[in-house]
Amino acid sequence: MDSSKSTSNSQPNNFSSTYDPTNIDSPGFDPETYVTKLLRESRLTQLIDKEQLLTKQIKTLDNEMQTLVYENYNKFISATDTIRQMKKDFKTMEDEMTHLISTMSTINSNNHQIHLTLDNRRQEIRKLTSIHLLLQKLQYLFQLPNKLKEYADDNQYDLAVNTYTKALKALQKYEHIPSFNNIQQTCKETMNNIRDELKLRFDQQQTTSSNVVKLLLQLGESSDYLAQQYLSQNKQRLEQPLELMKQQLIVAENQLGSTSSTTTSNVVTQQIHPMDILEFVDTSYSSYIKNLHEFIESYELLFIRNSSTISSSPSIEDEYKERCKKYLEEYLLELYSNYIKFIHDLFQSKYYGQDDDIQLYVRAIDRFLRRSSNDIYKYLFTQNALEKMRFMLDTFLTFAIECRLKFYHIYIDRRFHDQIIELRKSLTIIQPTTTNEHTQSSSTEHQQSQLNLSQCVDKILKQLTNDIKITFQNLSIFLDGTEMIGHIGKKNVFIKQFAKNHVWNGFFLTLLHRLITYFEHEYTTASNNSTIIRHEQSSPPILLLMLSKLILDFDSSSIPYLCTVFEEKFNLILENNQRGDNQKSGSSIDRSKLTAIQKQFSIIAKQLLKQYICSQGYTLSQMLRKSIETRDWLNTIEPRHVRSVMKRIIEDLTQIDKQVRMLYNDQQSSAPLPSLSSSYGRYYHRSNLTSGGARSSDGGRRTIIMPRSSALDRTISGGPGSSGGSTGNLQLNFHKVFSEKLDIFIDLQFQKTSILSSIIKLLLKTYLECIRLKTFSRYGLQQVQVDINYLYNYLWSFVNNDDRFITSLLEEIVSSTAMRCLDPILMEASVITVICEGN
């Protein structure tokens, strides 16, 4: 109902708009209504403007009407003239047709009269004509031997062969007649002499003209022999352009080697600029393959298309053609394989193979494959030859891609090694030596503070990541070529194989293996099955720390980012194939190999970190060991200060803490270290804690390290040889059996606290072993007490207050010293505190 109402309402609206009396363009226009509406709704100025507009439109319509009338009048006049002219032309044609009919009737009558006149003698004329032709042929045959001899004497062998082949059928037809038989024998002798002369020329010439071969074929010479000899004689000529291109390639490489020698050589190379790789491929292809194609055309004209002998059946001639095609295919494949070998040398040369212009490189490959596909395939007749040619082109494509991958490997390795060398130089300049004084170490600290280790690592990491990313982008250009696909219609298969075999396995995974090999060979000195690490390092210890951070960041951030870039560029997905299923989707690649490589990166990073710990611990331990071994502990005076070696150890540990803090941070922020030059020791730090109410002056870190009860029992028993001493040793050894074993690298993590803890463990373990080799006096024991408590006041902050192992080791050191003391009298705790605070 609603729809019917709407349609009924719309119809009056359309009608009113079509027959509007106020619309000047509608059929129902009413001038009076229109004028009345204008007078009622418009002002005077609007009426004047409307009047001027209507006047202008009326004049325009009048002019258009006059123009149309004039044009129609002209057309009517021209049509009238045309009709009048056509009437005149038709009258002329009628007169000419009448005259033609009368002429044709006259010709027919004359023709009939001549036919009646000559009808009686027509048979005689035919007989005479045939006799005349026969006499001419006989005369030609009788004169044939003399003509052939004249042609042979004048070396006009082509005329002789053509003349003989024309008369050969007639001689064979009438060879049963003695006179004709003699003529045929004489001609054969002459033609045999000509054939022997042509064959002698054919064998002696290095490059045979096609005319000689054509004449020998017409004389019945074996096509197999001629085809093989013709191919071998032209081989050297066809390979001359290839030899010239090889010389140009040698010149280009020589210019590359001499560009940096002298300025004069630079001037020469500027004057003689070698071609780029695309131009070189085009030039070599045009010069070599063009000559080869021309030769093939001539060969086909001689042996395949027009190979005809004097007398041969169609089956024999077909066999000849098939053998000639086979010879041509083998010859073509041999020459083309030589050319592809040259192209291999071109793409792996130093000058053209190391060009940075990847687009030009890909265009050269695409141009070569396209031209080869278009030109060579049409000359191969068997499927076996086509497969061999396709295999050579596919092999070349794989070789060209591998050359480019090798170039990128070398390029990235060189840039990465340059960054490492630059970093080593900067670290060597600021590396402190063990013989420097305090002023030199303070200047070194200032230089190292200026060198932001984290920024250096980030710089190397960004460059390496960016180089790999740019390489992915450059390798994706290979997919733009249309003729690079080895099999037509399988572009998707080629893209997946290229991305998987070449980009993923051939470039990315291989590059990661090269990095692993580089770090293992240059920096890691411990095998995977051994915990022994050599301390003689040619690399600065800080470099090992930075490299471990570099490897860790590359493994955790750069590799996932590069995987994302790879997936975007090549439209593939990386998936883990944990079950070993080979049935993967067409757009996915197994990343299990990458997972194994990432594990190796983590292992190498931890090995480098262990080497850094061992190197720093070894340096501190050597300093401590020499100070213990060179001191006479039995004739030591009463201690009044902390030994300088302890201060130096704390300085070095503070510097190590700053270095490690730049690269590795704990999850919780560690307390800032005070400046050793302004307030030496942790007592200044403890006073800050005390003012804040966190620690008291008598508790917390003010605890004095004392020997264990078992060692004190020995001091009470009186004498190292008494039974009480034996009981103390037994108790101490019993305590060691049930105590936790000290492992320097147990639960080593990439955190500052873990690294510093391992170094301190190694230092204190060395301290303990050196103490066990010495015998001490009373003052020697007290000096060790002072040194141990001084170390304790600093070491706890390096490990974020987790000092249980420090306390245990320091107590064991003091206990071991007390056991080896001749007069084990301990220093009072208050005196130790005063001495440590004074230093």
The number of helical runs is 27
Alpha carbon gap, first and last residue:
108 Å
According to DSSP, the number of beta strands is 2
Shape: flat
Series of H and E elements = HHHHHHHHHHHHHHHHHHEEHHHHHHHHH
Mean pLDDT: 76
Task: Please compute the radius of gyration using only Cα atoms.
Answer: 54 Å
Portion in helices: over 70%
> What fraction of residues sit in β-strands?
under 5%
Q: Please identify the structural class as seen in this structure.
A: mainly alpha
Q: Identify low-pLDDT runs.
A: 1-13, 260-272, 432-450, 526-536, 668-702, 718-728
Task: Explain this structure.
It is built from 27 helices and 2 strands. The model is unreliable at 1-13, 260-272, 432-450, 526-536, 668-702 and 718-728 (pLDDT under 50). Helix content is 74%, strand content 1%. The longest helix has 75 residues, at 44-118. With 839 residues, it is mostly helical. It has helices spanning 2-18, 31-41, 44-118, 122-153, 157-173, 178-204, 210-218, 223-233, 235-258, 263-271, 277-305, 314-347, 358-375, 383-430, 438-450, 453-476, 491-522, 541-570, 592-629, 644-663, 683-691, 709-717, 723-738, 752-771, 778-798, 804-819, 829-838; strands at 573-575, 588-590. Among the domains are: 40-154, no CATH class; 232-254 and 274-381; 409-429 and 452-573 and 589-608, no CATH class; 631-662 and 741-838, no CATH class. The chain has a two-stranded parallel ribbon.
